[in-house]
Amino acid sequence: MNLSIRNRWLGLCSTTLLLTLAGCAVTPGQVAPQKLTDSAPAERPVDAEYRVELPAVEMTPDILYQLLVAETALQRGHYAVGLTQYYRLAKQTGDPRLAAKATRIAIFVRDKQAALQAAQLWVSIDPANLMARQAVSAAYIRIGQPEKALEHLEYVLAQENDGTERGFMLVASLLSREQDVQSALLVMERLVQSHQERYAAWHAYAHLALRANILDKADAGIKRSLHLNPRNASAILLQARIIQLGGDKDGAVAYLEKQVRFLPDETVLRLTYARQLVDVRDYDEAFKQYKVVIKQAPGDVDVLFALGLLALQLERQDEAYDYLNQARESGQRVDDARFYLGQLEELRGSREAALAHYSFVTRGDNLVEARVRQAMISSQLGDIDKARQYLHSLHVSAPAQRQRLFLVEGEILRGAEQHQEALRLYEHALIEMPKSVPLLYARALAAERLDFIDLAERDLKQILELDANNADALNALGYTLADRTDRYQEAYAYVKRALELRPNDNAILDSMGWVLYRLGRYNEAIKMLRRSLEISLDPEVAAHLGEVLWVNGEQEDAREIWKQALEIAPGDKRLLNIMQRFLKN
User: Hey, where are the domains in the chain?
Assistant: First the structure.
């Protein structure tokens, strides 16, 4: 915090203080003292903030001088001088504003004793001021005398007892600001002892204990509060939160379910219950609860939006469209609704409709993703130039987002078999982000497709220098060496390390099978490739397994593997090439 900001925080400048203290303008050339009551002899002025009659004080040259000294000291960072001057002026004039300012300066410079002294003076001048009472309470706690804070906190409670019992929460909020959490909680405990039958006292105590991260005391306090008032929705929510923080998410959900049955018309409880159901991935029940909420709160756009997303998750496309469209028509969260309507149309196979929805997303968190989806759809429709235009229309500065856009554009180019253009893109991106592991990996893949094996190997080894346990790089390097060179033992070592890191990864199992095949260990290779195929019926794995089976003399098994794979991926080029090579004879 720089000096000017600190001084603004501390309060009024000297001229403003003069005007407000005097209650009237001091004109140039004015020398004689002037009484504050001269302009309104019938009654003394009352300050709106402090709600107390201001004292009748003569604006003498001495007071003016002290004010100027105090403010000049603050402006120059001499806070001790400013504090002393304001405290003397407050004591001399009895003006609560000066006492308040002295208190704030003392708090700011962390002079605990001075803060207590100034706050005590403030309370003596303006005993009904709740800010003064809070300040003196805090001061007592900070000097290690929490019991002396009780009298002032009780006063705050008495003044705030308007039927809502918000005073207890005000006290808890005040105490929660203290660094000495144990002392603050001790004060609250003593306060609660005097109000054993007040549910709000226990509720506030539980809040404070939770802020202190003492879950057992928070739990005990909220249980006592709910015993006194079992229909208090905010206390029920706090109890659920305590259960969840204790590590029992399912228990919190079960508790909320019970409370929703007990208080079915409490919308806030049902809404929280629905959100908790989403957290534990019980989407069906969450959807049911949100449908009840929308009946209790018709037109709530956030609830409509949640229903739309849940319907999408549950593949209830017609309902998803209805809820998201209602959210869009509300005029709120329009960009979000359009984005998810675009996703819905993609699921339906309506690419043009999806593009139209995405085009209406012009701001918000989903803007980048909307343009990415437009680019991907355009590439699927064969318009690569348009796809790239969508990506280039985005102006992002965050490194993570820029990396994402480079990767998406590269993926589009590689999908269109424009590997040379993809390689140029990655080279440009890596000038900007030379240590980006995803970009190095992408360039390695593009380089391998262009037969630049040295470049692919160099990029993959650079990744391993940055992250020695990068399983993807280990796997890609091992597979490339086995497939495109005769360095089989070296390839085996890389894939073996990758498999140790991810023993059930079907791609790594496939690579190991291929390395073993290159090493002439056919039976081990077949076993490894079958394991990979059991995890995922990938056409490339099927192509590999069929080849090994064929070379191992198991031609009928090879034909059957290829046949099954063709039913799933009838146009896969690698699979077709392998079959053509071995079946032509």
Answer: 1-128, 498-585
> CA-to-CA distance for 528 and 519, rounded, in angstroms?
14
pLDDT at 161: 62
The model's pLDDT over 325-365, given as tens digits with 9 standing for 90+, comes to: 999 999 999 999 999 999 999 999 999 999 999 999 999 99
CA distance 208 to 137: 16
Longest dimension (CA), the chain: 120
Contact predicate 550/522, CB 8 Å: no
**Cβ–Cβ under 8 Å, residues 36 and 57:** yes
CA 222, 227, 229, 232 torsion-angle sign: positive
Predicted confidence (pLDDT) per residue in 89-118, tens digit: 999 999 999 999 999 999 999 999 999 999
Neighbours of 138 (CB within 10 A): 23
CB 442 within 8 A of CB 424: no
State how far the Cα of 538 lies from the Cα of 572, in Å rounded to an integer: 10
Determine the residue type at 499: L
Q: Answer whether 447's CB lies under 8 Å from 455's CB.
A: yes
Distances, alpha carbon 93 to alpha carbons 55, 59, 70, 122, in Å: 7, 10, 15, 12
Output the pTM of the full model. Answer: 0.74
Whether the CB-CB separation of 438 and 466 falls below 8 Å is answered with: no
Pair of tokens at residue 318 = 């017609």
443, 459 Cβ separation under 8 angstroms = yes
- Which residues, in sequence order, are CB contacts of 347 under 8 Å at separation 6+? 312, 315, 317
Given a cut of 80, whether residue 324 has pLDDT beyond it is yes
Helices (H), 314-393: 317-329, 334-347, 351-359, 367-380, 384-392
From 3.10.580.10, 3.30.70.120, 1.25.40.10, 3.50.50.60, which CATH number describes the 498-585 domain? 1.25.40.10
502 close to 471: Cβ distance less than 8 angstroms: yes
pLDDT at res. 585: 58
* Cβ-based burial of 323 (10 A; exposed 0-12, middle 13-18, buried ≥19): buried
Report yes or no: 119 and 101 within 8 Å, Cβ to Cβ. Answer: no
